[in-house]
Structures are given as C-alpha cells and as structure tokens.
Amino acid sequence: AATSYALKRLGFYHTQPEEESTSGRKAVARKRQGIIAASDIGCYTLSVYPPLLALDTCACMGASIGQAHGLEKAGVTNRIVSVIGDSTFLHSGITSLVNAVYNEGRGTTIILDNGTTAMTGHQGHPGTGTSARGDKAPRVIIEDLVRGIGVRDVNIVNAFDLSLIEDTIKRCVETDEPSVIIIRGACPLHVRGKGKPLTIDLAQCDQCFNCLRVGCQAITREGNEIRIDAALCVGDRCAVCSQVCHQKAIRVK
Is 163 a residue whose pLDDT tops 60? Predict the structure, then answer.
C-alpha cells in the first residue's frame, strides 16, 4: 500500500480541456506529468484501480521491466519505473533487467519482496528457501542477484515506511544508471499476527479522507466519519494510514 500510494503521488495526471470528437462525445485527454509506472502481474496490480490509480501498464509476467526499458528507448521523457513482485521477478523478470543493464538503461526497478508467492496461494519460490512443496531449498538472495547482473545502485527499504519509499524513488529516478529498490515486508495474509491496534480521533479528524486513498479494506467511511475495522486492521505493523494523516488523528489505542 505504501509503495502504491507513493507512486500515486509521484505520477500525477494533467487533464487537458474537453474536445468534441467526431462521434459527438466529449473526450478528456489525460497525460502523465510525473513518473510512469509499468506494472507486472501480482497482488499489486490492483493498484491500477481507484482509489490508488498508481500504475500505467500491465501485460504479462515479467513484462514490466522490458516495457519500462522500451518506453525509455522510444524517447518517452518521463521518469519511468517498473514494479514487479519477488516471485514474478525470479520467474521471468531477471532477463529483462539483464537486457536493461546491458543496453545502458537508466530506469528504476521496484521489486516488492514479501517473501512469498502471495498471488496464487503463498507458495515458496527461489527467494524464500522453501520449495513449492514446502521442503527446504537453496535460497536466491535478490540483492546479491541484481548486483551480479551489474546494478550498482541497489536499495533495500522497509515496505511500511512511506516517506523513505518516496524519497528513495525520487532519488533513483534522477540518476543516469539502472537502479533497483527492493521494498521488503511480510504479506499480512501470510505472516499472521497483529500489532498494537489503531484508532481514529474523530475530534482531530478534519475529513480530508487521505486515509481512504490508501485503499485499505480496514478503513471505511460512514457519512463524514472514518472508521477502522479492528478485525481487518493489522495495527502498527503497517500504519501506512497514520503516515498519510496530516492531522495525526490516526494513532495507537
């Protein structure tokens, strides 16, 4: 959620005036003024939908890095990032990163490493040290792998630190060499357990609804009041909502 929210903020749309089309329907042209985010196949692909609207492309497993590199070589002037999960990167994303490094690309690859194949049922993959059958297996260290490919700018970031994620993306996209950001944090559906519960101080809340834009299913709106469903919230293990609340109305109970 933190990565998607950061990309939403960094990749904003500019809306052109409405123009009458040949069919008589008015069309609104939208252009990315900020970062373009090429997505891949995984749970994170849901960030293409409202309220996040953080991603721009999606084709097939492993395609995001190649798409981002292709956009760069085609002359697209926006800064471009590719977003890919750990299991998808190891499945078919490596070759595209090799190609981007070999052909002197400058794009940023964001690898969302939650230590499991979450999309299809939390199976093991080569980066977990566990086989698909649950047996112990050799483990691929992703940061060592990308350094071996030739990436020198490798960053490992906490998946729930919104400010650090955003700052790291901003820095990486401005460099003239390939960069990789490994955003690491456990999938809350895979590693069970709750932190300290969060609550909303309704007297402090100014109804800006930034917390709703995170896309968390535990946060709901009733009229002009925001509620956190304690049964769905993992508490301060995540706390991305509290990081986007400028009123500091979301806090530990």
Answer: yes
pTM for the full model?
0.88
| pLDDT at 36 > cutoff 50 | yes
- Per-residue DSSP letters for the chain? -HHHHHHHHHS-EEEPPPEE-TTS-EE--EEE-S-EEE--SSGGGGGGSTTT----B--STTHHHHHHHHHHHTT--S-EEEEEEHHHIIIIIHHHHHHHHHTT---EEEEEE-SSBGGGTSB--TTTTB-TTS-B-----HHHHHHHHT--EEEEEETT-HHHHHHHHHHHHTSSS-EEEEEE---TTTS----SPEEE-TTT--S--TGGGGT-TTEEEETTEEEE-TTT--GGGT-HHHHH-TT--EEE-
pLDDT band at residue 14, thresholds of 50, 70 and 90? Answer: low
Q: Which two tokens stand for residue 3?
A: 């990565």
User: CA–CA separation, 229 vs 5, rounded Å?
Assistant: 20
Tens digit of pLDDT for each residue in 120-135? 888 889 899 988 788 9
CB 93: neighbour CB atoms within 10 A? 24
| Closest listed residue to residue 234, CA positions, set 189, 200, 201, 202 | 189
